[in-house]
Amino acid sequence: MPALAATADSGPPQSHWLTAPDDPGLRLHLAARGDSAERPPVLFVHGATFSGRMFDIDAGGVSWLRAVAAAGFAAYALDLRGYGRSGDADWRARAFADGAGPACTGPEAIADIGAAMDFITCRHRRPAALVGWSWGSTTCARYAAGAGRDMVGALALYAPIFAERNEAWLAELADPEMPGQCRPLGAYRRISAEDMRRRWDTQLPPGADDWREETVLQELARVSLLDDPTARTVTPSAFCVPNGTLIDLWECFSGRPIYNPGRIDCPVLLIRGTQDPTSTRSDMLALFDRLGTAEKQYLEIGNGTHFINAERRAPALFSAVHAFLHRHARAAKSTGEP
């Protein structure tokens, strides 16, 4: 894979710490690259398993934050509560306690996105673009359709999930004792490096081992384990992942919409890899047809899975999203928006 263009922002990302609006004891982590106030801002929101680290993997030339900063944007990646570096040991002990309900539900994630967008739009004095991946496509879409309608300048939903029955995922999430219902959920689950490899490998067709660099998988596992101080208290080492997302995914994969796309009126790009079994073509097109905005487009990229942003085809994904963001950042500036 060709290396991304070098930038002055080639060291570690800057960290911003925000207070969650509904929990003064919770600090949210926001990573940033190229975040000069005069640049148009873009916020990346992760999915159900990995934190914002997914957008800044320091291997294989697949750091999306570096790429989008090199393209002229102020790049931010949020860790939702309980993911990555958001939530200290005391907060996690409470949120992940035995008997606690699923942590980081959809409404809580949307509140975290709102806190990050408030910070970013105040800092840059203009609406921000949002890029939501996988489950993050649902939380970003709900924010853009609701409280954030005036804050979002453009919305890119990568590997979007909407409302199509997905039998493989339903089998994974179903209660074996009560078919048709989601299994009982604790506050969190644990993910090991082998779990990561197994899920990713099942999406690679025969002969596609070269779609992903081994160093990328290893680095993503390393930083994910590093961020959780309890990861090495179990064997094999495994990091905690909040289970609130599974409530939303059960509904989506049961074919039940959890938001109204018709309320989204900003420009929207839908984009997926062709080998993605989680974000399907038919589901993406159903979402496309129901979007309220006339400024919408969809795109598929060949030879890529649900994790295409961390694969060898990542540059094609980055280029397509950056072109969309540039076009609408220019449009926002031309209309005199702050």
From TrEMBL:
Keyword Hydrolase: yes
Domain AB hydrolase-1 as annotated: residue spans: 42-312
SUPFAM superfamilies named in the record: alpha/beta-Hydrolases (SSF53474)
Protein name stated in the entry: Alpha/beta hydrolase
One GO cellular component term noted in the UniProt record for this chain: membrane
Region (Disordered): 1-22
InterPro entries: AB_hydrolase_1, AB_hydrolase_fold, AB_hydrolase_sf
One MF annotation (Gene Ontology) recorded for this entry: hydrolase activity
PANTHER family in the record: HYDROLASE, PUTATIVE (AFU_ORTHOLOGUE AFUA_2G14860)-RELATED, MONOACYLGLYCEROL LIPASE
Signal peptide annotation: none
The keyword Zinc appears for this protein: no
Lineage of the species this protein comes from: Bacteria, Pseudomonadati, Pseudomonadota, Alphaproteobacteria, Rhodobacterales
